[in-house]
DNA sequence: TTAGACAAGATAATCGATTTTTTAATCTAC
DNA sequence: GTAGATTAAAAAATCGATTATCTTGTCTAA
């Protein structure tokens, strides 16, 4: 028997350790808005919540702080970063620049395997949407779709930054309840993005991507403003 | 008495903890090339080297892994990331895009305080160069200069990514011994960058920045090729 | 020979307890 | 009353020891 099934999607292919498990779970919960922004984390409570000892928990918290999903202060532990309009604008602006760049490069580099992956990812996403999002399913497939879209951009660092920005952006977008109406419009764009990618129309694809991020930004902003 | 002196330049204003101290030191050493690329880190040896216990050491290693200066694998600890031509190209390319963008924005936003800071940073850097680099002095002032140059770009995330890319780039640039000849040429450009920034000539400044990064890239590439 | 099983040693990860520092509450002097 | 000192409780950071996993070398059976 071998360990071919990755049990964790942590930093790299880290599997199995308590630290990586709690990292994954905490990351999901932070991105999914299950903590209050600005909140101070009570480490002992987290120990219970994630069923893990102190050492692996602290290691996970340290990683998340370095990743930007937590802030760590002097000798007073960890807290969930505050949200701000300025930061949301910053994140959205950066997404525009970086995902636009990545998409153009991906369209230039992507091979036919990419085309297949893209179609598959879009299909899975659409199907999940019909069944109306049981749990985190749609979120995961959505992330996966955007990841696939830019995957062959040729820059490991660009992909890394984009991923990080997505996590940060989702802290805003996923405030409050779901909005199926707007989602439909955004889902429409996902398919148009695939179309344009397959046609290798980099210019139009980038414009659509800009629009897509703009629309998502408006959703996120609304959520943020309602949430305050 | 208060604690107005920051004792550490860690992730945020983290001061005092053993973890943050060892994080800073390890980061310096990794960026400065005092570890062999690809090397597996012997945690017990690090404990002695940095005079610190296992827990804070592991926390620092976890942070560095999330930051990208280490890689962490399954259940077999930490290692220093390998170097590769492809990655160097990627990093340099990303620096071109991001620092160019940041510089343009900084020139648009920077106030007169920035101008003063910039002149000061350039002066300190030049002076350190004359006294011929005692220890890490020049490196630190160099980092500081580039940081100051883009500081008022208005994007926290852009600054963060640039910082990260600098650390990665320096893993290549700082292989092997110093090269005073080329450094002189690069130092020249630092002053021209200040000139153009003060004149608010964004276009020329960006071109010069591109050239500056290109030249640095050539140095780094040479080092890398000699180092293999 | 050589692939696979096994055991011993080394290393990584985790635990439980201790030390240090912060926080909050109370007290005291003005 | 209020600023500052004092101290008890809480929380963070760290330590020392334990447990789990990997690695290496040796052996055995085909």
Brief summary of the model shown:
Chain A is mainly α and 228 residues long.
Describe the fold and architecture.
The structure is a homodimer of 228-residue chains. Chain A has 228 residues and is mostly helical. Chain A has 2 domains: 18-79, Winged helix-like DNA-binding domain superfamily/Winged helix DNA-binding domain (Arc Repressor Mutant, subunit A); 85-227, Up-down Bundle (Four Helix Bundle (Hemerythrin (Met), subunit A)). Chain A is built from 9 helices and 2 strands. The first copy, chain A, has a two-stranded antiparallel sheet. The first copy, chain A, is globular, with a radius of gyration of 18 Å. Residues 1-14 of chain A have low confidence and may be disordered. Chains A and B meet through α3, β1, α4 and α7 of A and α3, β1, α4 and α7 of B. Chains A, B: Residues 16-83 form the HTH gntR-type domain. Chains A, B: Keywords: DNA-binding, Transcription, Transcription regulation. Chains A, B: GO terms for molecular function: DNA binding; DNA-binding transcription factor activity. Chains A, B: InterPro entries: GntR_C (IPR011711), TF_FadR/GntR_C (IPR008920), Tscrpt_reg_HTH_GntR (IPR000524), WH-like_DNA-bd_sf (IPR036388), WH_DNA-bd_sf (IPR036390).
